[in-house]
Amino acid sequence: MQLNIGQYPHGTRNQISDVPGVRVGHTTVDRDQVHTGVTVVLPPVHNPFTQKLTAASAVFNGFGKTLGLVQVDELGTLETPIALTNTLNVGKVHDALVSYMIDLCAKDGFRLTSVNPVVCECNDSGLSDIAQRPIGEKEVLSAIASASDTFEEGAVGAGRGTTCYGMKGGIGSSSRVMRIDETDYTIGILVQSNYGSAKDFRDATLPDDLAPCDKGSIILVCATDLPLSARQLRRVLRRASVGMARLGSYIGHGSGEIAVGFTTAPRTEEGSFYHLRALREDRMDIPFRAIGECAEEAILKSMLNAEPDVTLSGKKVPSLGEYLARRPGEEA
Questions:
Q1: Is 66 strand, coil or helix?
Q2: Count of domains forming the chain
Q3: Longest CA span, the chain
């Protein structure tokens, strides 16, 4: 789905996987009162522990239960795939990633003794019986095994039970191509949207009875092949909040709003030193704008690709598409 947002062109798929080698996989669990899942973003390396990529995170509001961000920010590297799930499954997903990395390293002839899994979450308890905690090693490994450069968006994986601005949320993704010194670079975002009040959404035609307060969470995962240092990448991630603000978010107290990302640009080793190519600071406005455009569009796509749903208490959760179709002069 293409939307007319921003100045930069989309990548071929308009997904985070437009960054070469990046793949995304989902496992969705739908049974009885359980409607949840896990989504995994895989960096384009065989073993992310032995082939560490430059990484960073940005916390806009820390009402969240993430694991792994402390070390990401301290060392500026990523050691595992990035997994998204619901709040009470964070520990189980973390454990599954540890097992996955132990096995992967063992196959490579390397004994793993420490690893830093990155796991982020949104609370989907309105649409799913979160206490059942159905996401474990089987589901995580299935998501990894299914990972592809083309993936479904909407109410799938970690976005199966989420809501956004009082409507159905989910997984959304978008990308932008940046032309710098005659070379094209790509930046992409994947979101798990579960935040926002309908009264704050930029489309004022929404009814007042949806989502009276801004609480929930949104996770934004960014990938790029643009050469950036970890410090620069953190600066870029902070600008993802621009896309959120353009849709109406004020980053409320009750919402865990967190971005994490990596660059696939290589770091070369020479003796005791790394050689890192990085963008000049006076050119940073280019990725700043691009990530804001990506975030705005990815959030909208997460909603537009999601079907209406019903909460555990029986209240309908409409889709954004339903409301857009009800506008005067548009077909229902």
A1: coil
A2: 1
A3: 67
Contact 191, 218 (CB under 8 A): yes
Q: Is-catalytic flag, 302?
A: no
Exactly one of 128, 175, 255, 319 is catalytic; name it: 255
Catalytic residue among 79, 257, 296, 297: 257
Residue 23 corresponds to which tokens in the numbers above?
A: 């793949």
Question: Which pair of tokens denotes residue 2?
Answer: 């293409």
Q: How far from chain centre, in Å, is Cα 307?
A: 19
Identify the active-site residue in 217, 229, 249, 319.
Answer: 217
Give a yes or no: residue 332 inside a domain: no
Helices 90-107 and 137-145: angle between axes, nearest 10 degrees? 60
Q: What is the CATH number of the domain that holds 131?
A: 3.60.70.12
In a domain, 116, yes or no: yes
Among this protein's residues, is 241 annotated catalytic? no
**DSSP string covering 129-179, please?**
-GGG----HHHHHHHHHT-BSS---BSSGGGTT-EETTEE--EEEEEEEEE
Distances (CA, A) of 285 to 94, 267, 281, 295, 311: 35, 23, 8, 16, 41
Buried b (16+ CB within 10 A) or exposed e, 155-172: bbbbbbbbbbbbbbbbbb
Helix, coil or strand: residue 183? strand
Residue 295 tokens read as: 């975030």
Long-range contacts of range 205-209, CB-CB < 8 Å, 24 or more positions apart?
Answer: 205/323, 205/326, 205/327, 206/165, 206/166, 206/167, 206/323
- For residue 98, being part of any structural domain is answered with yes
The parent domain of residue 87 ranges over: 16-325
Residue type, 262: F
User: Token digits for 203?
Assistant: 């489309």
Q: What b/e sequence results for 281-299 when a residue is b if at least 16 CB atoms lie within 10 Å of its CB, and e otherwise? A: eeeeebbebbbbbbbbbbb
217 catalytic per annotation: yes
Among 262, 304, 216, 276, smallest CA distance to 57 is for 262
Residues with pLDDT less than 70, the chain: 1-2, 203-214, 327-332
CB burial string 88-111: b at 16+ within 10 A, e below: bbbebbbebbbebbbebbeeeeee
Confirm whether 7 is domain-assigned. Answer: no
